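Dear colleagues,

As part of the handover before I leave the project, I'm documenting each prediction I ran so the next person doesn't have to rerun anything. This entry is a single chain, and its sequence is reproduced below.
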Amino acid sequence: MSTRTLIRGGLVITAADETHADVLIEDGRIAAIAAHGSTVAQGWTADRVIDATDRYVIPGGVDAHTHMELPFGGTFASDTFETGTRAAAWGGTTTIVDFAVQSQGQSLRAGLDAWYAKADGQCAIDYGFHMILSDVNEGSLKEMDRLVEEGITSFKLFMAYPGVFYSDDGQILRAMQRAESNGGLIMMHAENGIAIDVLVEQALARGERDPRYHGEVRKALLEAEATHRAIQLARVAGAPLYVVHVSAEEALAELATARDKGLPVFGETCPQYLFLSTDNLAEPDFEGAKYVCSTPLRPKEHQAALWRGLRTNDLQVVSTDHCPFCFTGQKELGRGDFSKIPNGLPGVENRMDLLHQAVVDGHITRRRWIEIACATPARMFGLYPKKGTLAPGADADVVIYDPHAEQTVSAETHHMNVDYSAYEGKRLTGQVETVLSRGELVIEQRRFTGRAGHGGYVPRATCQYLG
């Protein structure tokens, strides 16, 4: 049965345009867009009509950095693919790109198959995968070529976490050389993990054990140094580079310098670095553990630089790095030793609303909101124009957004499977009202109407910012 949905009377916002227009959806795709009140739009009929008067009609968000069910520090991220994608939908995100993990000594294929199995039939929205390389060797380098052909076109390496995910400069260079030849994009966790481990050991020896020391040992200069080194290795390999979760002004300066030279270097930041700071890490009674993530939260003065980077396009994407651990029983593993606190924050449900607040506060424009949260991540990771925009032929991933609704963020009302909110008590203007994923209602007037298994795996093309 062919179904037609008509979204009428809203302000349609994409990265390129804002127009008062009606959107016609047929068979899971956008069939047409026409000016509201035009002869064309007036002639449309549909099985379902959604009134979007006084609302924004925007593309579903693309969160290109999530970690559902990630094993870390002797425990697992608390959101499953089912709970995490449902929460994403509540927050106006209709596509996630999660990370499949190669374990040391295992093949990429074994890691990827394990993640396919975790997600299959569980997701409320569409999903893709990046591949984490934890063991760069001849076998895994060959496998990279096959994965690119299969639609896994980005590979994450870590300059941090020795003994777990860490790759040395030689391994990084080899992986970058391989990406240069197969069209893949290298994503980099840029922190000098070897030096950080020395500082952790010294801090613990001095009896500095509270969560705030997590931020103090993971120094901004060590993020900047690793970012610089990653850029130079990428230049040697002739490969593009995407630096994840940029948190420090000094690291951003390295990206800006490279981009000023015309190098294919890209940067992502996350809401936690834009809205939270070391003040949160210093909260008393171990509350600071809720805010332990890596790269860590920085002093407040870094926020202005990150906002500026988003305006100047030295940072192109805002993703969440959603990796939730409950305060009770998980974050508490690090009581008395900050280095044992599982690293990660919940945020997949909050990103679109927090970035709308940034529009309200004057940090970014409405179109830039859509650009950094929908269009650019889709282009960066080979999903555009199927995802990330509203245009004829695109998937009908559409959010009806109420820009005037007032809400207070709280663990009491969020849908992520975690017992606290990183933004508890924060008042926001703007709220997701209705969400369609490939034309199907998953949130209708603030009610979840979706289901596990609606979301499908999406193979990706290579990065669309490269020739």
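The mean pLDDT is 97. The first strand starts at residue 4 and ends at 13.

All the best with the project,
I.
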